[in-house]
# Entry
Amino acid sequence: MSEKLIQTEIIKYLQSLGWKVIKTVVLSKSGDADLICCDTKGMFWAIEVKDLKEKPRPLQITKLLETQRIGGNACSVSSLKQLKGYISNGVPYIEDKKIIFSL
# Structure
């Protein structure tokens, strides 16, 4: 599935949960996550969406790490199923730019 289709599927799902979702296209700076979200508990989420063939670039990893360091949730996903797992079970922490979860 293409990155665009994965994003669309994720956006529809998160909005169905009552989340506020902003797709960053023109507004973003280099390395910013694809989706900036606020869940129904007021928690900040930065979600980078990649297809199965791609990995986040180093700058994207750095920005995800920065989000986690200040208490937000940050992850890179390649499917709605993967994101649902993070929402249910918590997002693993990124350590020293080494991703300890599947990016």
